[in-house]
Automatic annotation (TrEMBL):
Record-given protein name: von Willebrand factor A domain-containing protein 5A
Pfam families named among the record's database cross-references: VIT, VWA_3
Organism whose genome encodes this protein: Heterocephalus glaber
Domain of life: Eukaryota
UniProt xrefs under SUPFAM superfamilies: vWA-like (SSF53300)
Summary of the function given for this chain in its UniProt record: May play a role in tumorigenesis as a tumor suppressor. Altered expression of this protein and disruption of the molecular pathway it is involved in may contribute directly to or modify tumorigenesis.
Xref: InterPro entries: VIT, VWF_A, vWFA_dom_sf
Sequence ranges assigned to domain VIT in this UniProt record: 1-77
PANTHER family noted in UniProt: VON WILLEBRAND FACTOR A DOMAIN-CONTAINING PROTEIN 5A (PTHR45737:SF6)
Domain VWFA: 260-448
Coiled coil: none
Length: 755
């Protein structure tokens, strides 16, 4: 389940009788469960895995022969907002094995040995019906899985229902993208209910999605009534507040600021599996390599960088971070091509410690990019290490493929002030990675604080962790508790967000009604409790005694599960104990084939040539790359055009130099579809003598003419090129662009070259 899910109800329906579970201290729940089982009682136990908050284990014991049991979970979570305004909900169906850290023998429910069968022989399927309710009209629902046509349940289109097509097996996570008529007012929370199983199906899951709105592109506040019969001044006994801000950060030119960029790439064996279970899906390691090379090409000149690969051990390209130059970029690109998923397990902690203990480079803040499928057992030690070093770096994390640990990926970004991305199915890793790099280079809102203007005798106590930065396009959500006397209906309050952007103070205020609204699910209270638990709960081994006590109290009071609590349900009304020999049923899981994926011929072919048309002979061992010999060739690789037909953008990217320029050579001519001699003849030497200026202007004009649908992936490259042109062509730029337009038969506005 997603890391941000707040599980608050667990029920079992046994032969028509409902048994509601109680949330207890985990140690007591385990003892009660074992006693109940030994006495022949029916008992049910639900708990988080000891090593990761996104994995749950359910124990079901002592069933009568022929009995049917339906299990119901209820949880609430914030849904991420996509760039196109959709809300994204994912029902995880892939649970990959997690790798144990060396020397640790922490028990994990993932260690359970279950039979493995081919996907086509799996004896069960997933049937799911999703009911979506919202305050605004639902426009459409899209999915990565086959769905039935959407049915509206209300005339105003505020309620709709979709279901999975029959026969869905557990070969991919199920994703819903929900689009609304009011695109700029999407929701921030979803309530999930999974009712009892219908007869006649092998694995049924009905879902009710109750969408709770807050206008994302304008600030909003929701106040929720306290839980009845709870004492005031307690988490559930006072009204809870959810504050949503969407700060308006201008889309300014990305600043090519200096920095130290370290890329930490997973090279464990699990990276040698496909990105998704779709036919001809690319291998994870290949997708990560391609994206890493794009990032290398997009770095600002004069920054510092290094690349680490990790598995059971780790390797660094350079002993320490090196300055970004043409030479170091080319060497890094060459080395990336040789990387394989051949380093064993997934031990990310040791390389992280090595990176954090390295010397800081004055004037170059550390930006850490982590690429991993997240299949590591003990995530809490990693999160704690990143958090401990959060003052000296920001971490941007990428979960590769389905089944990546949301607990690991989300938290290492969250505790360090970075962002996280998940790349699954048909997602373009290039787009998400370049978007993240752009964020790391942009100005951010800092010095964030909230202030409240409330009536006398009423105070707001923050429940959310401190937010350090806000990136452009990022939504900001706070939770607070209102303590004191709530005034009459007409009373209002005001909350103000203060922060700084490039040294300038910014304020954003919102006035709201103080009259709380009743919600039988207490959604805001439970989201607030989950947010509070996440800041304190670091698992059994990493949580201090004081924090453990706080987590236990918050969890028990709110009913939201934690590492130290578990749900237990015991059927105490059973007339007689279940007797006779116990039969252990083995429920198989599918083997998701790591079949050979289609090689990325386009990238492989392009990478065989450097920006100077050099042909590279790569040795098999990584350590030989530092002393690699290069032989010059006057011609571009002959198979380049055939392998990369129609993908000139990729070719062009790999021809660009580190400083942003292009050389005028045969490789560029092939991308432009022109004869090299014709390009040279059209060179406007009366405006500029440097052929690289002419080549670079042609490349930029070609990109704007032929590659606008992938602009987000070459945006940083193009900005580097424009800066280089401005330096080397100056006032002649406008005339050179007009000449390039005429030569390429394009109509690109010369104004785009203005910095």
């Amino acid at each position: 389940m997603d890391e941000d899910s707040a599980v608050y109800t667990f029920e079992a329906l046994v032969d028509g009788k409902k048994i509601v579970a109680e949330l207890q201290d985990k140690m007591k729940a385990h003892t009660d469960y074992e006693v109940a089982i030994s006495q022949g009682c029916q008992a049910y136990l639900l708990e988080e895995d000891k090593s990761s908050r996104d994995v749950f284990c359910c124990n079901v014991g002592n069933l009568q022969p022929g009995s049917k049991v339906a299990l119901t979970l209820r949880y609430v979570q914030e849904l991420p907002l996509e760039a196109d305004g959709a809300l994204r909900y994912v029902l995880p169906a892939i649970l990959n094995p997690r790798y144990h850290l060396s020397g640790l023998t922490e028990d994990s429910c993932l260690d359970l040995k279950t039979p493995i069968v081919p996907l086509e022989n799996l004896p069960y399927t997933l049937t799911m019906v999703a009911t979506i309710s919202s305050q605004h009209g639902i426009n459409r629902v899209q999915s990565n899985c086959a769905l039935s046509p959407m049915e509206y349940l209300e005339g105003d289109k505020t309620s709709a229902q979709v279901s999975l097509a029959e026969g869905h097996k557990f070969d991919r996570d199920m994703e819903l993208l929900i689009y609304y008529s009011a695109v700029h007012s999407p929701s921030v929370a979803v309530e999930m209910a999974m009712p009892e199983r219908k007869p006649g199906h092998k694995f049924d899951r009905d879902m009710e999605l109750l969408i709770y709105y807050s206008a994302v592109h304008s600030p909003s506040v929701a106040v929720e009534m306290a839980m009845p019969e709870r004492k005031p001044d307690s988490l559930m006994g006072d009204p809870a507040v959810m504050v949503s801000f969407y700060p308006d950060i201008p889309d300014t030119e990305t600043s090519m600021i200096c920095g130290e960029f370290i890329f930490l790439m997973d090279r464990s064996g699990s990276m040698d599996t496909p990105m998704s279970k779709q036919d001809r899906s690319q291998l994870r390691i290949e997708a990560a390599k391609e994206t890493l090379i794009l990032l290398l090409k997009s770095l600002p000149l004069d920054c510092y960088f290094n690349i680490y690969g990790f598995g059971s051990s780790f390797e660094a390209f350079f002993p320490e971070s090196v300055k970004y130059t043409q030479q170091t970029m080319e060497e890094a690109v060459e080395r990336v091509q040789l990387l394989k998923a051949d380093l064993g397990g997934t031990e990310i902690l040791t390389p992280l410690q090595k990176i954090f203990r390295g010397p800081s480079i004055p004037g170059h803040p550390l930006q850490l990019f982590v690429f991993t499928d997240g299949e590591v057992t003990d995530t809490f030690s990693v999160i704690k290490e990143v958090k401990f070093n959060s003052k000296k770096h920001r971490c941007f994390s990428f979960g590769i493929g389905e089944g990546a640990s949301t607990s690991l990926i989300k938290n290492i970004a969250r505790v360090s002030g970075g962002t996280s991305e998940f790349i699954t199915g048909k997602d373009r890793m290039q787009y998400k990675a370049l978007r993240t790099l752009k964020r790391s280079l942009q100005s951010v809102m800092e010095d964030i604080s909230l202030s409240w203007d409330l009536p006398p005798d009423l105070t707001a106590n923050m429940l959310s962790p401190e937010q350090t930065v806000i990136f452009r396009g990022q939504r900001l959500i706070f939770y607070a508790q209102l303590t004191g006397i709530v005034p009459p209906e007409e009373a209002t309050g005001e909350v103000c967000l203060r922060c700084t952007l490039q040294g300038k103070s910014i304020e954003q205020k919102v006035t709201f009604s103080l009259q709380p609204k009743y919600d039988s699910n207490f959604t805001i209270h439970r989201l607030a409790a989950k947010s509070l638990i996440q800041t304190k709960d670091m698992g059994f081994r990493e949580t201090s005694a004081r924090e453990r006590k706080d987590v236990l109290n918050i969890s028990i009071e709110s009913g939201v599960m934690s590492s130290f609590t578990a749900f237990i349900a015991i059927n105490k009304e059973l007339n007689q104990p279940v007797q006779g020999p116990l039969v252990h049923r083995e429920i198989p899981r599918p083997v998701l084939s790591a079949r050979p994926a289609r090689a990325s011929l386009c990238y492989q072919a392009v990478l065989q040539s450097s920006s100077h048309g050099q042909k590279i002979k790569c040795r098999s061992r990584l350590e030989s790359m530092h002393h690699m010999k290069k032989t010059h060739s006057s011609t571009y690789e002959t198979n380049l055009q055939s392998n990369c037909k129609g993908n000139g953008i990729v070719q062009l990217i790999f021809l660009q130099n580190a400083n942003g320029s292009w050389d005028l050579n045969e490789g560029l001519a092939k991308v432009l579809g022109m004869n090299l001699e014709d390009i040279k003849a059209a060179h406007p030497t009366k405006y500029v003598m440097d052929s690289s200026v002419w080549a670079t202007v042609l490349a930029v004009v070609w990109l704007h003419t032929n590659g606008m649908d992938q602009e987000s992936e070459w945006d940083l490259l193009e900005r580097k090129a424009r800066a280089w042109i401005h330096t080397h062509a100056g006032s002649s730029t406008h005339k050179i662009v007009k000449t390039a337009n005429a030569f390429l038969k394009s109509s690109v506005d010369p104004a785009i070259f203005t910095l």
